[in-house]
Design a protein that fits this description.
Blueprint: E1 2-8, E2 36-37, E3 69-70, E4 80-87, E5 95-97, E6 100-101, H1 102-117, E7 122-128, E8 150-154, H2 155-165, H3 176-188, E9 197-204, H4 223-226, H5 256-268, E10 271-277, H6 285-295, E11 307-308, H7 314-327, E12 334-336, E13 347-351, E14 354-356, E15 362-367, E16 374-378, H8 379-388, E17 393-397
Parallel strand pairs: 1-17, 2-12, 4-7, 4-9, 9-10, 10-11
Antiparallel strand pairs: 1-3, 5-6, 7-8, 12-16, 13-14, 13-17, 15-16
Helix pairs in contact: 1-2, 1-7, 3-5, 5-6
């Protein structure tokens, strides 16, 4: 969360009076283009309460001059959109924890998170595979406008629709690359009208397959083998379950290259991808790492680079992972104020509760070429925020700028 604070001589402790700021792109602070606007939304599935109902989040002792206090200094909101791309293959029916299936656990965790944040974020849903046919092929996916079970739209409208769609039981294979291609078509087509920050959250419990054009593969690239579902011959010889007359075939070969390419295409049009690996993806950890890095939104607490979920924590553990994804999403180094401050020499910056001096290794400056001015994080401060993000950035007005700590 980014709060914009303003100080006057009225009281001793500053309190948030502006709105929050959503995450911007992680580009260089000196790059051209519009900077992020201060907004009322932390990007993700779990957000703090709006600042207007928070009484205070800073100690007076944080500032050398305890005589400064609060006065209004508001900010504007940047829209946030997240497309949920959810694996509903047959293996999602397997047990997750305490007798609960992976599908039930994911559905409950998502329902809780989406319901709490529907006022702040635009959500959409694509399930893979998916078909209204009660007996679909293992790799069935709609095409065109029908590919999005719920197109990205305002949370109050789309969240009930998403929860309803999640009631459909799992079935089929894992056509991940094809689902991501549909997502790309959406964001580059109907979704181009979406403004602000755009994200995709990919949640899967296995390796991607279902590429009808995949060449024959070895057991080490066969998802049936990698999942431990391929029986051995008498004597222990390993079968290749992607090369049998039983009907498995190359459709079950690992489709990692096409999946990585689709994620990179999304990143190229400004859509970052979070990768969540549910139980069942252990054999695919190196591939999920590649997906996460290609998506531009890796786990800041890597390794692994993707967000790994295990069954030990139950549904609460899965919910915690979703919260982790969204708690460190301020990754921009440019924060444009909502209006011109009376005196730029009365600005201060605090990141995750720590005051940042304007000079030194950790530093920031004011770009006065924009109107209103833009606070630009520099040096180690910018590098840290871009690499691991920040839960909160407070821009405070009214107290003399701290030059050295």
């Amino acid at each position: 969360m980014v709060c914009v604070w303003a100080c006057s001589a009225a009281c001793k402790s500053p309190a948030p009076v502006g709105a929050s700021m959503g995450a911007g792109g992680g580009g260089d602070p000196d790059a051209a283009g519009a900077p992020a606007k201060a907004d009322a939304s932390t990007l993700g599935l779990v957000l703090p309460e709006p600042p207007s109902i928070i009484s205070s989040t800073a100690e007076a002792g944080s500032y050398p001059d305890n005589a400064c206090g609060a006065s209004p200094f508001s900010a504007s909101q940047v829209p946030v959109s997240i497309l949920l791309v959810i694996d509903r293959s047959a293996s999602m029916s397997d047990t997750y924890s305490a007798g609960v299936s992976k599908w039930t656990a994911l559905r409950q965790a998502l329902a809780t998170a989406l319901e709490s944040e529907k006022q702040n974020i635009a959500f959409g849903l694509e399930l893979f595979p998916y078909s209204d046919d009660p007996s679909p092929g293992m790799c069935a996916l709609p095409v065109g406008a029908a590919a999005m079970q719920v197109p990205v739209g305002p949370g109050p409208t789309t969240v009930p629709q998403i929860i309803a769609r999640l009631a459909k039981d799992p079935a089929g294979g894992t056509p991940t690359a094809a689902a991501l291609a549909n997502a790309y078509d959406f964001f580059s087509g109907a979704g181009r009208s979406l403004t602000g920050e755009k994200y995709l959250l990919l949640a899967t419990d296995g390796g991607p397959n279902c590429n009808p054009n995949h060449a024959p593969c070895e057991p080490s690239q066969c998802t049936v083998n990698l999942d431990g579902r391929c029986a051995s011959r008498d004597g222990g010889a390993t079968l290749n379950c992607c090369d049998l007359p039983s009907g498995y075939g190359a459709n079950y070969c690992l489709d990692d290259q096409a999946t990585t390419e689709q994620i990179a295409k999304l990143a190229a049009i400004g859509v970052k991808t979070f990768v969540v690996g549910l139980p069942g993806t252990e054999a695919y950890a190196s591939f999920l790492d590649r997906f996460a890095l290609a998506g531009g939104a890796p786990n800041p607490n890597s390794p692994p680079s993707y967000f790994k979920v295990d069954g030990a924590g139950g549904i609460a553990g899965l919910s915690a992972i979703l919260s982790t994804i969204t708690s460190k999403l301020i990754t921009t180094c440019r924060f444009q104020l909502a209006e011109d401050p009376p005196d730029v020499n009365l600005l201060n910056v605090e990141i995750d509760g720590r005051m940042i001096a304007q000079t030194g290794t950790d530093s920031w400056e004011v770009d006065r070429t924009t109107r209103p001015p833009t606070v630009v994080l520099k040096s180690a401060t910018c590098s840290r925020v871009k690499s691991v993000g920040a839960s909160s950035v407070h821009i405070v007005y009214g107290c003399p700028t701290i030059l050295i700590l």
